[in-house]
Specification:
Blueprint: H1 2-26, H2 28-39, H3 53-59, H4 67-84, H5 92-112, H6 138-152, H7 160-198, E1 205-210, E2 217-223, E3 227-234, E4 245-249, H8 262-271, E5 275-280, E6 283-297, E7 303-314, E8 323-325, H9 333-344, E9 354-357, E10 366-367, E11 369-371
Parallel strand pairs: 7-9
Antiparallel strand pairs: 1-2, 2-3, 3-4, 4-11, 5-6, 6-7, 7-8, 9-10
Helix pairs in contact: 1-2, 1-5, 1-6, 1-7, 2-5, 3-8, 4-5, 6-7
Length: 372
């Protein structure tokens, strides 16, 4: 479901850029073509059968999202599209810029999320991620979507100035929201930093990312060396209000003998080192902490189970596909969203409780330490 809504965001942005670039010449066809090219990079999933799961982690939002591929696609498609739109007087240069602008804005939005992309591949294999937007955020998408629906109902060319004005309003509101997200992130980051300073903690590194569907409540992950600390903070929280940190031991000692495995090295690269592990009878359970945890509140008061959104089993004795993703649980979303909204409004007790790490292969729930 999240992937489908994410594609809607990409198609909407592509359509808005298509209208901006070629709406004068193609009319509503510019919206359709922009939506098509806006989702094109994510068709890298069609090549999934060519990879095992570890290879797919490298491939998805990888080379297909690089500047090199965007440039090549623009050059290769410029003349064919120009001939296709010859009656509309679209030159090869204009067609090439149209493709490049739509593809590049797709990649830019992916860079705003935690997943990130290999923008500089093959020259640099670092995933670029700004962590300022959740993978789907209605307040980013809706202004552009509503503007495009309005534009599609207008006639061309009589109402061309209105088309452009409405489209720019939709894009402007989306850009304003992105700007606000960076400001909200900076505000939350200062709160986390001040809390760590009060506790005398100097982390090796840390990052912040927004929680689902908003830019008010933020999640911080802190690397202390032996463990990761995870905390939540709303931009509405008072600056003096402490952050409650949940401590996840890394569990890397159990990985020493598997350190040379290709799959483990790909996990290290994919997660930028933000992963934990727990041993089990057949290998390792591994989770990427960047993508947050699914919370399930126990029937007993004061208890909450944390299940990692991205987790795998690494089975070293298997001959093929040794890294296997674990199915994601489907929590009671209504309860999750209700508690999330309450925590964003400042009600900590609605979100925080005594945590247990749940879902580790072959293990009972692990009680986690909190601080303070």
């Amino acid at each position: 479901m999240l992937c489908a809504v994410d594609s809607l965001t990409q198609a909407t942005l592509g359509a808005a850029i298509g209208e901006l670039a070629l709406g004068k010449r193609l009319g509503n066809r510019a919206i359709a073509w922009g939506a098509f090219f806006g989702t094109l990079p994510d068709l890298d999933i069609l090549f999934t059968p060519l990879f095992d799961h570890a290879g797919w982690l490298w491939w998805h939002r990888g080379p297909s999202h690089s500047l090199l591929m965007m440039t090549l696609a623009s050059l290769l498609l410029a003349r064919p599209l120009s001939r296709w739109w010859q009656a509309d007087k679209v030159t090869p240069m204009l067609a090439g810029w149209f493709v490049f602008l739509v593809l590049s804005t797709h990649v830019l939005i992916d860079c705003f999320t935690t997943y990130g992309t290999l923008v500089c591949w093959p020259f640099d294999t670092t995933r670029i991620a700004f962590n300022n937007l959740f993978i789907i955020d209605p307040l980013f998408t809706l202004p552009m979507l509503l503007a495009l629906i309005w534009i599609a109902l207008l006639k061309k060319p009589a109402q061309l100035p209105r088309r452009r004005r409405v489209n720019l309003i939709g894009l402007g509101l989306a850009c304003l929201y992105v700007g606000l997200s960076f400001g909200a992130k900076a505000l939350a980051s200062r709160g986390f930093e001040a809390d760590l300073a009060r506790q005398g903690m100097t982390p090796l590194r840390r990052f912040e990312s927004p929680t689902a569907f908003n830019i008010i409540l933020w999640r911080s992950v802190v690397d202390t060396g032996e463990s990761f600390w995870v905390g939540y903070r709303s931009i509405l929280d008072a600056s003096s209000e402490p952050t409650r940190w949940t401590i996840y031991p890394k569990g890397r000692d159990s990985c020493v003998i598997m350190g040379e495995l290709r799959e483990l090295q790909l996990i290290e690269h994919f997660s930028s080192g933000w992963w934990i592990a727990r041993p089990h009878a057949k290998g390792l359970w591994i989770a990427d902490l960047r993508f947050g945890e699914i919370r399930e509140w126990d029937s007993r008061d004061g208890m909450v189970d944390h299940r990692m959104s991205f987790s795998w089993n690494l089975l070293p004795d298997e001959e093929r596909n040794r890294l296997r993703p674990l199915p994601r649980t489907r929590p009671e979303m209504k309860e999750m969203l209700k508690r999330l909204a309450k925590r964003a409004a400042g009600h900590r007790q609605a979100w925080e409780a005594s945590p247990r790490l749940e879902g580790v292969t072959g293990s009972l729930p692990e009680f986690l330490i909190t601080r303070p």
